[in-house]
Amino acid sequence: MAVFFSRFRSSVRYIFPKLRSFLPEERTGFSTLATKQVENTSSRSLGSPWASSLIPLALTFSAGSFTCYSYENSGIAYCESVNLDQSDNTSSGKSSTQYVVKGSYGKVSKGLIEELRVICKGNITLDHDERYFHGKPQHSFHNAVNIPDVIVYPRSEEEVSKVVAACNKHKVPIVPYGGATSIEGHTLCPSGGVCIDMTNMNHVKALHIDDMDVVVEPGIGWMELNEYLQPYGLFFPLDPGPGATIGGMCATRCSGSLAVRYGTMRENVISLKAVLPNGDVVKTASRARKSSSGYDLTRLIIGSEGTLGVITEVTLRLQRIPQHSVVAMCNFPTIKDAADVAIATMMSGIQVSRVELLDEVQVRAINYANGTNFPEFPTLMFEFIGTDAYSREQTLIVQKIVSEHNGSDFVFKEDPEAKKELWRMRKEALWASLALKPDCEAMTTDVCVPLSRLADLISASKKEIDSSPLLCTVIAHAGDGNFHTVIVFDPNDNEQLKEAERLSHFMVHAALDMEGTCTGEHGVGTGKLKYVEKEHGIEALRTMKKIKAALDPNNIMNPGKLIPPHVCM
User: Fold this and answer.
1) Is residue 413 exposed (0-12), middle (13-18) or buried (19+ Cβ within 10 Å)?
2) Which is it for the CA torsion 448, 343, 350, 332, positive or negative?
3) What is the pTM (predicted TM-score) of this model?
4) Residues in the chain with pLDDT < 50?
5) Distance separating the N- and C-terminal Cα atoms of the chain
6) pLDDT at residue 100 in the model
7) Looking at residue 136, what is its pLDDT?
8) Contact 430/471 with Cβ under 8 angstroms?
9) SS3 for 244-287, per residue?
């Protein structure tokens, strides 16, 4: 208890002097009563240490009343309340995976809606079905009580800037929206507000072939971009789930199966432009391939999940389409054998472009969904690129490594259509898993550990899920220590939900204990909020909160995401 009070006592000097400026002048109902109580308390003498210790504690527990104001009166709190549903059929809180997020809702004024209509030249909608679709992620079981009040469809950076400035003036929450492929609740609108759908900003603005870079708007998909680049012999190497857009990929710092060779979004964005919460437009860097000038604002925005600004332009690093590639597959008696081969391959110095691991259940799901007959054993898929001779040389070296680790059925393909089909089936693994239980939903883990610990983590996780009554599949980007478990469960069965949460918790905490991360590429959103304090520590989270408060003092940018609400500055 003493530690508990000391943690809050340290923040009283920040909270109490700013209390009057933080509280709005006009309130109604319970909020007015709470204000009078605070004002009466502040006029008294604070003669005892006990009283001064209680002030920050009282403020923390009454934070929920501060979230009841209209948007026009709201601002960022020093300590925000955890607005999570506590109903019997919902698991929530710091120890839970299923979030039904309750934000501080205030109706958007008609004046703002008309202002947005003028800014976007009529490209807005108040249709309930459309708002519900945008407010409920299509590939996630996470949910929110509220949906956006209005959706705007800007077509230019200028329109985005004016929309954001208007929302900031009225203190209305903003949630950027792209390809809707997020699975961690990034696009939930727990406080309602304005959803900015960026899909109309989907153009290539400039292609610099000799510099091997391209300038694009955020709404273009990575698959559409690569179709555009193919005639020029270039491609963008990151390959997350089908449908993902460049803006969302930047926001979540995503990667994919090719990250083992080309890196993540962090390494493949040269610069970007973003609209800050006050409507200002900032360009984070020049087009030079490297620079040691100034703060690295590009990497600050990448991975910020829409909490610091709205991305409106991205300059991407491109690669030459490989001259030749070989895709190899092999089977193993255990998943640990497969993971050991992935590690041994990386330690050998071979520059593979992909190393993907699938357990026997995932292979069975792929066979079921695609009508194929792959051997249903733990399987590794490799891709080697380069010249014909170099690709085949790498293939033979890895074949030898496989034979030394109980591997079998080593086959490889060079036909372009055959290779494309193999990677298509791998990319659609999630849908293949759901095909086995079509009335269920999926909880997907995304842990990543140092490469040397991958075999240990996968083995421990596999033992746990094999003893579970739930259907679970394992898919790993084994070359960089990142693996996913697709846990299939009936969302209407509370026992299945609890079991899915138990498995997810086990894998995340095991990864964190191995100096890993709770999310290698999917991002935090709301689904991983409960793990970030253990991963980063409270001081790192306070630093993030200070950056957020400095750039977004009204807390309008995707509130409730990335930084846990209990973190105090």
Assistant:
1) middle
2) negative
3) 0.83
4) 1-70, 73-78, 81-99
5) 21
6) 64
7) 84
8) no
9) CEHHHHHHHCCCECCHHHHCCHHHHEEEEEEECCCCCEEECCCC
